[in-house]
Amino acid sequence: MDESKIASVKDLRGGAAVELVDDAMRQVIENIIDPNTIADATRKITLTLTIKPDDNRDRAAVDIGVSVKLAPHESERTKLFFGKENGEIVAEEVDSNQGKLFDGTGDGAKTKPGGKVRHINERK
């Protein structure tokens, strides 16, 4: 078959496949330069052409799809202390500058000097 008469991916749907891949490439580049993502993680762009011929085999529906796998954001870590104060559950994020949080008896929480224990059921 003469190759010049075969539809080109770059021409399908007015160049939609190329536009989709270009948009995916922009997403990948943005993800790579984002300092909050894992630097050496692999990114992936997949172009999928799904071709479904009709019963007569003289035409086909073509679905053009692009999927992008980006690097996740690096996780952030912190630590929480838990306890009870006046019978209510409390939680406080660890702060290396804070004083003693709990009194060690398991039934009360102490805050850093001048600080306040925020109860879990309180909204910010």
User: What gyration radius follows from the Cα positions, in whole Å?
Assistant: 29 Å
- Poorly predicted runs are 105-114
Q: Can you give the mean pLDDT?
A: 83
> End-to-end span in angstroms?
69 Å
- Spell out the helices and strands N to C: HEEEE
Q: Which overall shape is indicated by the principal axes computed on the Cα atoms?
A: elongated
How would you sum up this structure in a few lines?
The protein is of the alpha+beta class. It is built from one helix and four strands, in the order H-E-E-E-E. It has two domains: 64 residues, no CATH class; 48 residues, no CATH class.
Question: What do you see in this structure?
Answer:
The chain is α+β, with helices and mostly antiparallel strands and 124 residues long. The protein folds into 2 domains: 6-69, no CATH class; 77-124, no CATH class. 15% of the residues lie in helices and 26% in strands. It contains 1 helix and 4 strands. The chain has one helix at 16-33, and strands at 44-53, 60-69, 80-85, 88-93. It has a two-stranded antiparallel sheet. Strand 3 (80-85) and strand 4 (88-93) form a beta hairpin. The longest helix is centred in the N-terminal third of the chain and has 18 residues, at 16-33. The chain is elongated. The termini are far apart. The model is unreliable at 105-114 (pLDDT under 50).
